[in-house]
Amino acid sequence: MKNPLVRQALTLWVPLVLTYVIVLLLVQAGVVDAYMQVTIATICINIVLAVSLNLITGFTGQFSLGHAGFMAIGAYATALVTMRFDSIVGFIGGLLLGGIIAALVGFLIGLPTLRLRGDYIAIATLGMAEIIRILLQNFEFTNGAAGLSPVPQYMDWTWFFVLTVGSVMLIRNFVRSRQGRDAIAVREDEIAAESIGVNTTRSKVLAFTIGAFFGGVAGGMYASYFYVIKPEQFGFLKSIDILVIVVLGGLGSLSGSVIAAFLLAIISTLLQPFPGVRMILYALLLIVIMIFRPQGLLGNRELSLRLLPGLRKRRRDDAGTEAA
Amino acid sequence: MSILDVKQLTRSFGGLTAVSHVDLTLDQGELVGLIGPNGAGKTTVFNLLTGVYPPSSGTIVFSAHGQTTSIGGKAPYAICRAGIGRTFQNIRLFKELTVLENVMIAFQQNQRYPLPTSLLRLPGFGRAEDEIRDGARELLEVMHLGHKAEEYAVNLSYGEQRHLEIARALATRPTLLLLDEPAAGMNPTETANLTRLITQIRQDFGLTILLIEHDMSLVMQICERIYVLDHGIVIASGTPDEVRSDPKVIEAYLGEEVDHA
Ligand SMILES: Nc1ncnc2c1ncn2[C@@H]1O[C@H](COP(=O)(O)OP(=O)(O)OP(=O)(O)O)[C@@H](O)[C@H]1O
Ligand SMILES: [Mg+2]
Q1: Do residues A178 and B111 make contact, with C-beta atoms less than 8 angstroms apart?
Q2: pLDDT averaged per 10 residues, chain A (length 324)
Q3: Cα separations (Å) of B166 from B162, B171, B174, B209?
Q4: Is residue B88 one of the residues assigned to a domain?
Q5: H or E element, residue A126
Q6: Nearest CA owner, ligand 1 atom 11
Q7: Are residues B240 and B192 in the same domain?
Q8: Could you tell me if B59 and B185 lie in one domain?
Q9: What does pTM read for this prediction?
Q10: Which ligand is nearest to the Cα of residue B45, counting in written order?
């Protein structure tokens, strides 16, 4: 465990590959039914949405209420491209195009608004997402309120796995780099950050643009799995849903977002048989968590063995396996 | 050779003129004090020099590395990159980050690597990060904070936080360093340590320093020249001895002790 590469392999790659293989086998064996597949897809999409919003809101400190807008752009781009070019190349192209257009829109919205502070950004992003939704509702080429269908389905477990892990890794690499530290400095104290040479506007716009890109990719994943997309699916409530995952997991914690995405999906599955009380229980649970753990499940820390002192000690004592 | 040339610098907030027609020059390598009663406008002068506010009127010309920059209206980060570093009276650290990360963020502004290198961990990432980390560590050692590198900034003592503010400012490689009450809240031993450190970093890093400080013994001990500000106006300037015996200064400090140094 001394060698960081060995350590990374054991704590990261081995569990990831195992997860991939096990789920793949379960799907092929028919153990994972259609309903569970939808749950898995939802979890993956929500993870990408949450980590990308976390980059903007949790790491850079810019309160965005419009993430569903970026998702919509990605969903429609992927749908339109794959409906025309029904091939794997069309799918990958559509996904990328969706991400790029979302990033471009994010950049254009971010440039003027991110100079402002605090509440203005929340209102500007909220407005942006609403405008996107209304445009999609009224354009002819997006088929108005009826939306687009059938969108060719290219998303399978392998794609979900690759795109979700890839997105989380890229965002993790970003926040653990000089650009990411600049963004975190902006969140911590904008005046101090400027005083040590951080171009704070640039830093915010960069994080916002990257977050928008992955929001777009998540939208593409959504469109290419669920057949039908409509403007109403990408409204204000969707943005709030994503924000709930981020806040629940912890602002500034990527592993928190991942865990929260799982947790919320499991809770909503468990509550499925009680549709009447489902929303009430869901809301109550959130309130309770926010009262007892307002910083979110993981705060702004990442899940690691260091967070579990008891576990670490046991591992130390168990020197035989440790050395192996 | 003058490194900073401030002429007729004025800044009003609504009806209040916090800084009024201030002239101030600093020569290369000088250590100059800026003193005055509470609310005199000292911190506002720093905020004008570092672009936190634009001046209402007046000019600020900064010359370093053979380049002359007009500061008025420039963004703070650009002023920092031109070579002016500062600390804050009301400490402004990145509290949720470690001591080391606080300094790394300042240090990395001069060690840039491109975005793809970050996102894809391209070759060169590890080496660039090591350089940033090592450079930041060195500065922590200078400010006697090496043993606290992995501590969260918020957990430092008051005096340590002030040291960290200086380490972070040094990491921007300034030619002019502005220190806003670096000894505030320190006990006499800590103040004596800091006094030594200030003269040492000035020598080792070839700095010009402008220092705001209420601790008169510190100011009189290490400053070569002093500007005295009162109600936004420079009421006296000169060597510590000249300033100390100036009747206008004594009047401004009415009730406060000026000459216990
Ligand atoms: N952003 C601002 N808005 C309004 N008034 C301000 C602002 N900044 C400073 N002032 C006012 O300007 C005057 C000078 O303030 P400044 O902080 O520069 O004083 P100072 O000399 O640093 O005082 P101290 O020794 O207490 O730190 C004060 O009356 C203060 O209230
Ligand atoms: Mg002050």
Answers
A1: yes
A2: 73 89 92 90 97 97 95 98 96 98 96 81 92 95 92 95 97 97 97 97 96 98 96 94 92 95 87 79 80 84 62 38 32
A3: 7, 9, 11, 12
A4: no
A5: helix A119-138
A6: B18
A7: yes
A8: yes
A9: 0.92
A10: 1
Distance CA B237, CA B221 (A): 16
pLDDT at B17 over 70: yes
Residues B62, B97 within the same domain: no
- The answer for A 206-245 residues in CB contact with B (under 8 A) is 206
Same-domain status, B9 and B110: no
Q: Are residues B145 and B206 in the same domain?
A: no
Tokens linked to A85: 């070019």
Together in a domain, B124 and B59: no
Residue B71 sits in the same domain as residue B98: no
Pick the CATH number of A33-323 from 1.10.10, 2.60.40, 3.30.70, 1.10.3470: 1.10.3470
B22, B232 contact by CB (below 8 A): yes
Chain A nearest-CA residue for B110: A197
Query: How many domains is chain B partitioned into structurally?
Result: 2
* B92 closest CB neighbour out of A189, A198, A300: A189
Domain that holds residue B103: 93-173
Cis? peptide before B188, omega within 30° of 0: no
